Amino acid sequence: MSDEATKPSGTVKFLSGNEACMEGAIAAGCRFFAGYPISPSSEIAEKMSGRLPKLGGKFIQMEDEIASMGAIIGASLAGQKTMTATSGPGFSLMQENLGFAMMAEVPCVVINVMRGGPSTGNPTGPSQSDVMQCRWGTHGDHPAIALSPSTIREVFDTTVACFNFAEMMRTPVVLAMDEITAHMREKIVIPPAAEIALINRRKPALQAGETYYPYEAGEDLVPPMMNFGEGARYHVTGLDHDRTGFPSAAAEVQESLHRRLVDKIERHLEKLLLFEHHRTEDAEVLVVAYGSTARSAKRAVEEARAKGVKAGLFRPITLYPIPEKQIEAAAAHAKRVVVPEMNLGQYKLEVERILGKGPAITGVNRVNGEPIAPSLILSAILGD
Amino acid sequence: MSMDYFQYLRKEKMPHIWCPGCGHGTIMKSILRALDKLKWNQDDVVVVSGIGCSSRTPGYLDFNTLHTTHGRALAFATGIKVANPKLHVIVVSGDGDAMAIGGNHFIHACRRNIEITLIVFNNNIYGMTGGQASPTTFTGFKGTTAPYGAIEQPFNVCSMAQAAGATFVARALDLDAVAMDRLIVQAMQNKGFSVVDAWSQCTTYFGRPNKWGDASDMMEHYKALTYNVRLSDKMTEEEKAGKYPVGVLHQATRPEFCAEYDKLIERVRPVEK
């Protein structure tokens, strides 16, 4: 993705990650934003409040993050592409209604600029400690899609991808950005609109007089969606429901609903997986890293190669669903795997689960509000 | 003149979940009579609720209906209204839903004066979860979490609404459905945020532990606790003490959120050449 930043066409800008996120959302067709101020994500709300009314879109500052999440779900049901942006404590508050959006299958996008936690933690320091919250933050079994960008151009691209995935899958999508990526500035070439592929929610093809079943899915497991006000007059609830959208306590209805909500991710897995291989073909030491940490990791891999060590980097851009087969392939020749992250080993747990008792897996972890320097990762690669 | 309720009801969802003697059905019918009077296209009406007995109402109604999370109905409704201001948005909520867990959303919806009508089905108790004390349980009255009587002061829904900026505020009793119809129509016609504190008796969980008798006995109790606001001037302070006025309690004209946002768009949108 980031290689496209050198393409000649498009508008050249010098943006922070938060600014690029706003540009991506606008390019994706987002015309409704609800949010609540919180560091280090606030610039996204600020920029949206300036841009949206100029485009005829709407920005609303809500009373808290719970309300922000509720508002973007409501606005999505009314037909808009919608987004909110927050950080750690606000992301915690959004979990209840995130679950509602998953259950009621309402597309929307949540930007979580990760900061140190738990609690108020380190409001202005970088962190990657919400990785597991992106996967398991709300209660119950549920689908999860979360992306994590490394460069400013990639922030733009992944924000567009979040909207596309949300619309395609009828589910909320999270962009988990670390504070470094959010506040770092880089040159970015914003592609012309014609070069940005957009996906919109699929409408049902109803014959005259045909009943609309808002939760009846075909082979692709994603039900077509009508918006409120378009004449279908259907019911939406967070309760277990059947194809009509009305609550049902029937065991077989509940079982098939919950399985479909999770299975639909698996059904579309290949389309959802974004990742980068860097010198993994013959890698004997594999680094798995994401977000800004992957930038340090890439440098460390180059330095290790210069010392004659066959190192490689696998960078998941889609954190969830996990690119499991791709991680296995990247580790095919690996004797050791290093997982650096600004938390105490959250994604390492996933890598351990995927690679089992194969290569030895080491974490490089920091939770002190400082980035992970290439030298730390290099030491781990060299086994110092 | 009688109207055909079934044109607005999802008949196949009957019977409803409410107990015999509950006032919620009376309020629901009053809402339908108000909507019938306004002749809004059913496709343009959205009914939103949170969680609780009252919040099951949208499921029975043939409009665009949304049953959200506990206390959050106004937040969802705000998103719907801002995203598509042509839709008529009605929120039904209980006293716990609106005044406890949803209290923050309540005061901010009032402050924004967004054109949404909130009907609070106020029965002074958490019915669905089994009769726990709510923010409108009267002091000294019992609930399953106030076995010795509530020691807290109840919220006055209408005073809160007025103080926070709602531009139409009324209280209605289910025992006077004619007045309730009129108040709900006025609320729905208001170009701003409207609150109707609609009192309803919970015979199962409020009447029984507090020895208030059956539904008709409870209505007598509520009648004794209230007075018509139009008679306020003729009553002494002693006569009004501890009682709640019923009728239109507050009306004001103030800029409405969606209309103001449209003006903002007009102001900042680049002129097309």
Write a structural description.
The complex is a heterodimer of chains A (384) and B (273). Chain A has 384 residues and is an alpha/beta fold. Chain A has 2 domains: 2-195, Rossmann fold (3-Layer(aba) Sandwich); 273-382, 3-Layer(aba) Sandwich (Rossmann fold). Helices cover 38% and strands 22% of the residues of chain A. Chain A contains 13 helices and 16 strands. In chain A, the strands form 3 sheets. In chain A, strands 2, 3, 4, 5, 6, 7, 8 and 14 form an 8-stranded mixed beta sheet that branches. In chain A, strand 7, helix 6 (152-169) and strand 8 form a beta-alpha-beta unit. In chain A, helix 10 (291-306) packs across helix 13 (374-382). Chain A is globular. Chain B is an alpha/beta fold and 273 residues long. Chain B has a single domain (17-268), classed as Rossmann fold (3-Layer(aba) Sandwich). Chain B contains 11 helices and 10 strands. Chain B has helices spanning 24-38, 57-60, 73-83, 95-101, 103-112, 157-164, 177-189, 203-207, 215-224, 237-240, 257-268; strands at residues 45-49, 64-67, 88-94, 116-122, 125-126, 132-133, 168-173, 194-199, 226-228, 244-251. In chain B, the strands form 2 sheets. In chain B, strands 2-1-3-4-8-7-10-9 form an 8-stranded mixed beta sheet, with helices on both faces. A two-stranded antiparallel ribbon of chain B has the order 5-6. In chain B, helix 4 (95-101) crosses helix 5 (103-112) and helix 5 (103-112) packs across helix 6. The termini of chain B are far apart. The mean pLDDT of chain B is 97.
Topology:
The complex is a heterodimer of chains A (384) and B (273).
Chain A: E1 11-16, H1 17-28, E2 30-35, H2 42-51, E3 58-61, H3 65-77, E4 81-87, H4 88-104, E5 108-116, E6 122-126, H5 131-136, E7 146-147, H6 152-169, E8 172-178, H7 179-183, E9 185-190, E10 235-237, H8 251-267, H9 269-272, E11 275-278, E12 285-288, H10 291-306, E13 311-316, E14 318-320, H11 324-330, E15 336-341, H12 346-355, E16 360-365, H13 374-382
Parallel strand pairs in A: 2-3, 2-4, 4-5, 5-8, 7-8, 12-13, 12-15, 15-16
Antiparallel strand pairs in A: 1-9, 5-6, 7-14, 11-13
Helix pairs in contact in A: 1-2, 1-6, 3-4, 10-13
Chain B: H1 24-38, E1 45-49, H2 57-60, E2 64-67, H3 73-83, E3 88-94, H4 95-101, H5 103-112, E4 116-122, E5 125-126, E6 132-133, H6 157-164, E7 168-173, H7 177-189, E8 194-199, H8 203-207, H9 215-224, E9 226-228, H10 237-240, E10 244-251, H11 257-268
Parallel strand pairs in B: 1-2, 1-3, 3-4, 4-8, 7-8, 9-10
Antiparallel strand pairs in B: 5-6, 7-10
Helix pairs in contact in B: 1-7, 4-5, 5-6
